[in-house]
Design a protein that fits this description.
Length: 185
């Protein structure tokens, strides 16, 4: 079923919208959540919660991309679940390691906390649009989908060493881009 038809089901409050969303994007959402949580019951709960949040958001929301919309909700719920678990018992697995990489590259430059989510998203969208496609795909795989270097290498056909190098050059390019934009000093 096409996204517009599924969104129409949400608009008319037809519960088939959730079934159709799961048929079309369930695997995608489970992958996002699994990459963050590494726990089947938590993954399933976050995906189900994502469907509930989607149900509550549409209408009035009218997403341009249902895949992106439900994927973002799933990701945010999974990150929140991980933060709760991390607070309960220190650790964080893949999530912590991934963000430590970015933090290490950017922290010494002092990114202001006042930068709004929309401004940051727009900056990142522009930055990613200028990256070569292979480097952009590696960057998104690592920092959006929380894939391991080995998973990215298997998916792209690159060696793990090449993936690490592409990630390093992308982080360096991001730091330069944010400095040029006056976000980092």
């Amino acid at each position: 079923m096409e996204d517009e038809a599924i969104i129409g089901l949400y608009d008319t409050r037809d519960e088939a919208a959730i079934t159709e969303t799961d048929k079309k994007y369930g695997g995608y959402c489970r992958t996002i959540s699994w990459n963050i949580l590494q726990n089947r019951p938590d993954t399933e709960e976050c995906v189900n919660d994502a469907y509930l949040h989607t149900w509550n958001a549409i209408p009035p929301e009218k997403p341009r991309s249902l895949r992106g919309f439900v994927g973002r909700i799933t990701r945010n719920l999974s990150l929140n679940r991980l933060a709760e678990k991390k607070a309960a018992k220190r650790g964080g697995g893949r999530y912590t390691a991934v963000y430590d990489e970015l933090d290490e590259s950017l922290s010494h430059t002092g990114c202001p906390d006042a930068l709004g989510e929309i401004e940051l998203r727009d900056l990142l969208d522009r930055f990613l649009a200028d990256l070569p496609e292979d480097r952009r795909n590696v960057f998104i795989g690592r920092y959006w989908y929380f894939q391991t270097v080995a998973e990215i290498a298997a998916q792209t056909g690159f060696t793990q060493s090449k993936v690490k190098m592409k990630l390093k050059t992308a982080r360096d390019a991001l730091r330069e881009y944010l400095q040029k934009e006056g976000i980092l000093v």
